[in-house]
Amino acid sequence: MLEPMLFRPMRDDDVAAVYATECAACAFPWTDGIFRDCLRVNYACWVGVRAREIVAHGIMSVAVGECHIFNLCVHPEHQRQGLGRCMLRHLLAQALGHRAETAFLEVRATNTAARALYAAEGFCEIGVRRNYYPARKGREDAIVLGCELTGA
To answer: Catalytic: which of 106, 125, 133, 148?
Structure first.
């Protein structure tokens, strides 16, 4: 049986491991500087730890009744085990604890696995940001998703 993933706030000394996970999982990863900036401006930055190893991370802002999930990532060696769902639920629970009523995020139009997860967790498409993400051949659209948190 797999060890459960535990959550804790991200620290400065986690950035190297978080960046390594990001690079392993994403063709166009955030830089380590972006993660450090997120910590510096006090975004809600979380890591998921399994067997003392950082295997996932999530970053969001919460303000004025809304949360915006900026980044949710699971290391490829740990994907397809429900850890993305666990991290998403953790972030949303944190947002509710800070009185957020609505959650927003963007997802690559081609990321069918993430889109299926978000739909299963109650997110609905509310818009499209054209040419939002870098892609191997030009740019890719982002699908904007939203979810009401009240009563959840």
So the answer is: 106
- Cα(130)–Cα(140) distance, rounded to whole angstroms? 7
Burial of 69 (0-12, 13-18, 19+ CB in 10 A): buried
Q: Which residues of the chain have pLDDT under 50?
A: 152
**Residue-wise pLDDT tens digits, 47-65:** 999 999 999 999 999 999 9
Host H or E run for residue 141: strand 138-148
Q: Which pTM value belongs to this model?
A: 0.94
Which of 19, 22, 43, 118 is flagged as catalytic?
118
132 is known as an active-site residue: no
Decide if 22 is catalytic: no
Q: Which of 79, 87, 134 is nearest to 108 (CA)?
A: 134
d(Cα 137, Cα 131) in Å, to the nearest integer? 11
φ and ψ at 108, to 5 degrees? -60, 140
Contact 145, 126 (CB under 8 A): yes
